[in-house]
Write a structure and sequence with these properties.
By secondary structure, this protein is α+β, with helices and mostly antiparallel strands. The chain contains two helices and six strands, in the order αββββαββ.
Amino acid sequence: MASGAKRGYEMCLRKFQLVLVVENNNNAASAITVHYGSQSRKVQLASGDALLTYTALMYEVRALFSLWSSHRLLLSLVEPPAKQIISASDNLMDLAGKSLYVLT
């Protein structure tokens, strides 16, 4: 491998490792687990100084579970059939470490 290409590879590798360290440090503090049927995924609420908004969270949920055609999509703090709906006025950081359930 040419020295220039090797340096570029090492820089990319270092950046990747730094990102992994940051994500691992924030995982427990600012992640939520989103459940849809038998599937579950973790979603980061904060990354560095950036906080996830309610609109961005809903977009992430649609993307994670391929729910683009679902017009009515709600998030609940309790498992169905009970409902404790999350709204745009809720502070998402208060939900860190909790589980959310997708209702369609």
